[in-house]
Amino acid sequence: MRTRWLAAVAMALTAIAMSFVPSSAPLVADTAPRAGEVPAALHLALDHSAPEADETVSSVDRVSLWFTQSPQIAGTSIRVVPEGGEPLDLGKAKMSAEDDKLIELAIPDGLVAGAYTIYWRAMAQDGHTVRGDFGFRVRAGR
Ligand SMILES: [Cu+2]
């Protein structure tokens, strides 16, 4: 039948076209950008941190955030908020002199035991602002 033959040709052409998709293309559908969005991989993002998300530490003298790109320090901030409390007055986050993707907030007096949330905001070189938050705990006794 003619329609069945056309369907087979269409499937073959689709398979050929798929084989030309570069291997660097995202494999997971939900990472694909929607119209008007910048692909997620091109945005600045938090790579890792110290303390890590959900980590319990015995003491902490700074928050360190490593980003995937060097942010604009003027649009970048870190807040530390104790559970049920107000943001701590810790001054401004600073860019590491050795690593322009590392932003640090000093906590010279350390933190008392308890749960904390870090709220961060970072401005990419392209002007996009990205924000996020994660929690960590300081255990009692040193
Ligand atoms: Cu961007």
Major sheet: 4 strands, antiparallel
* Unique bound compounds: copper (II) ion
End-to-end separation: 80 Å
Task: Specify the helix fraction band.
Answer: 10-25%
Give the mean pLDDT: 85
Number of strands: 8
Secondary-structure content class: mainly beta
Strand content: 35-45%
What is the strand arrangement across the widest sheet? 1-3-6-5
Task: Return residue spans where pLDDT drops below 50 for at least 5 consecutive residues.
Answer: 23-29
What's the CATH topology label of the domain at 43-138? Immunoglobulin-like
CATH architecture of the domain at 43-138: Sandwich
CATH class of the domain at 43-138: Mainly Beta
Give helix and strand order, one letter per element, not per position.
HEEEEEEEE
Shape: elongated
Itemize the secondary structure elements and their pairings:
Blueprint (H helix, E strand, L loop, with lengths): L1 H18 L26 E5 L5 E2 L4 E6 L4 E11 L11 E2 L6 E5 L7 E10 L5 E10 L4
Parallel strand pairs: 2-8
Antiparallel strand pairs: 1-3, 3-6, 4-7, 5-6, 7-8
The structure holds copper (II) ion.
The site of copper (II) ion has 5 residues, from loops.
Keywords, separated by commas or semicolons:
142 residues; mainly beta; Immunoglobulin-like; four-stranded antiparallel beta sheet; four-stranded mixed beta sheet; binds copper (II) ion
Describe this structure in words.
- The chain is mainly beta and 142 residues long.
- It has a domain at 43-138: Immunoglobulin-like (Sandwich).
- Helices cover 13% and strands 36% of the residues.
- The protein has 1 helix and 8 strands, in the order αββββββββ.
- The protein has one helix spanning 2-19; strands at residues 46-50, 56-57, 62-67, 72-82, 94-95, 102-106, 114-123, 129-138.
- The strands form 2 sheets. Strands 1-3-6-5 form a 4-stranded antiparallel sheet, with no helix packed on it. A 4-stranded mixed sheet has the order 2-8-7-4, with no helix packed on it.
- Strand 5 (94-95) and strand 6 form a beta hairpin.
- It is elongated.
- It starts with a helix and ends with a strand.
- The structure holds copper (II) ion (CU).
